[in-house]
Each structure stands twice: as structure tokens, then as C-alpha cells.
Amino acid sequence: MATVTITADMVKKLRDQTGAGMMECKSALTEANGDFEEANTVLRKRGLASAAKKAGRTTGEGLVAHRQSPDHTTGTLVEVNCESDFVARTPDFQRLMNDVLDLIDKAGDGASDAWLQDPEGPVKKRVAATIAKLGENMTASRLARFKGDYVGQYIHSVGGKLGVQVEFSGVTPAIRDREEFKALVREITMHIAAASPSPQYVTRDRVPADVVEKERAIYRAQMENSGKPANIIDKIVEGKLGSYYQQVVLLEQESVIRETKPKIKDVIAEANKALGASISIPRFARVKVGEAA
Description:
The protein is an alpha+beta fold. The chain is built from 13 helices and 6 strands. The chain has a 3-stranded antiparallel sheet with strand order 1-2-3.
């Protein structure tokens, strides 16, 4: 039998039929010598076509996989989704989460949300194998990987569906083991987990200019028919903007952990005074299963 030349159009056609990756489709067509039915069978045997057939099903359940380096200089959160909470609790799903974390560690700085979703990437291929075994659609939907002086984490103990990660700068080896610093890490991570609304930015200057202008325009429109002088309206608008910052900016939120409700910036200042340090927060991430980033 003559060997059939596998063309790009043939690969695309099989991919459209099965949803499997381009390289897998080419490999299957080569093995099947261009026979589409046989190539489909090859993919099904490898668990790839069956994974594609389930790709449209909703993945609203899952867990937040997490890992920190022993010295706390790196940390990773990754949301791994499936269709049912039952599957999320199986040993196979737990192994999948661990393997995804291993792949992220291996990729290092190359790991990103786009990398997670790459159909030719290692994570998609690893997920496909578990889909084939357990019969549910799954995906690793987003990740947060930090590297810095110190990376703290908090994983909500009820269900493991919520994880928080915070990078702290200005942390020396002498500071990281002190109880005052450990208490600060606990308070900040737990605050981010529990605060409502959840913080979106670390400081005011991180809020995008277009977001600020949109808020200003809304507040100004609210005052349009008030009959108040322009300078008074300006003050009212800025006051409302200040209230907005208190809702979305981490350092300006009131701590939900303490009854006295100090602002988070004051909590950090208090810790810095006790530690003789200059600790700050460059970034944070809050990952909750099923919640948009």
C-alpha cells in the first residue's frame, strides 16, 4: 500500500472532528495512513477524542491546587475544574492537580494562563488523560505564580475552593521567622479571602485611569440635577471616589479580621514598627473556583 502524504487540510479536518491537538491529529493520520475513521479510532484509544467530545460540558466544580517553595520565595495557585465535586475528591483528580503543579514548576516563568490553555501544551495533554479515565470534562483554567522575597498563602479549609496568595517585599531571613511577621501574613491573606467586596488592586495608583474616569463620570451624572455649585459637586465626586477606593484597594480596606477595623495600610505599618522593617505588598491573587478572574 502506498504511503499517503498527510496534508495540513487533513490534519485540520480531523482536529475539527475530534477537537484533539494538531500534533496528535497528524500522528494519528500518519499511523492510519490517511484513513480518517482509523485515525479517529487511534485518537479514541489514546483518550484524546473522548476528551474533545466532553469539551463543551460545564466545569463549575473543582479545587485550587497550591504549592510553596520551602523558603517561601515562590508560590503557585492554579484553579483545576471538573463537572462534579465527587470527581474533585477522587485520587485521580488529586494526582492531576499535583502533576499540573509539577508542570508549572518545570515551565517556570514560561507558565501563564495562555500556556495553560495551549492545546499543544503539556497541561492540556495531561488533563486529557484524566478526562479519558474519569469521563468528565476538566480544565486547568487559571494560575497565579509569584516569585519574591516572601510569598504567603491561605487556602480556605472548607472545601479547598478558595486560595489567596500574597507577595511581601522587604522580608529578610531574620524577619520571616518572627511571630509578628507570621501574624501579618495570616491577617493579610485571610482578609483578602474574607473581604466583601474583594480587593482588586493593591494601591490607588494601580487602579486603571479609565476605571477611575468611569467612576467619576457616574458620580457626576448622579449630581447633574442637584443644583449645587460646580466646586461643591467636584468635592462630592472626589468624596465618592474616596469611598470607591476604600472598597476596591487592599491597603485602604478596613481589616475584617480585627474588631477595631484598622485599615490594611495601618496593619502593615504596625507590623513594620514592631519588626523594624519596611515590608510592602507588590501584588496578590485571590482564586475562587468558578469565579471569574
